[in-house]
Write a structure and sequence with these properties.
CATH class: Alpha Beta
Largest sheet: 5 strands, mixed
Number of domains: 1
Number of strands: 5
Helix content: 10-25%
Shape: globular
């Protein structure tokens, strides 16, 4: 089903800290985003954080954002910094109609 371009879209930029690398956090987040039709991207940061951009209907993005507070079974999320973002942050992920895992930075 194609997204209605007139429908409101929420874009959030997340920085997730804790034991979030080496526990398949990015793979888990991609699966959760794909299941909900949320677009954006995720990647590991050199400091041990996971960074993500979530875009989609506000209620769906908020729900996924809340799930990120727990993450996959082996993760331990200590903190999530959340900021609203502009559509330009979707560009690193390529197409705006999917959720991708980017190379680490």
């Amino acid at each position: 089903m194609a997204e209605d371009p007139a429908s409101p879209q929420l874009i959030l930029h997340l920085t997730i800290s804790g034991r979030v690398q080496g526990v398949s956090y990015r793979v888990w987040l991609k699966a959760e985003a794909d299941a909900r039709g949320v677009t954006g991207w995720t990647r590991n940061r050199g400091n041990g954080d996971v960074e993500a951009v979530l875009a989609g209907p506000p209620e769906t993005v908020q729900t996924l954002c809340e799930l990120c507070r727990s993450g996959p079974p082996m993760a331990r999320v200590d903190q999530i910094l959340i900021d609203e973002a502009e559509a330009s942050v979707l560009e690193p992920g390529g197409p705006r109609d999917s959720f991708v895992i980017l190379p680490s930075v």
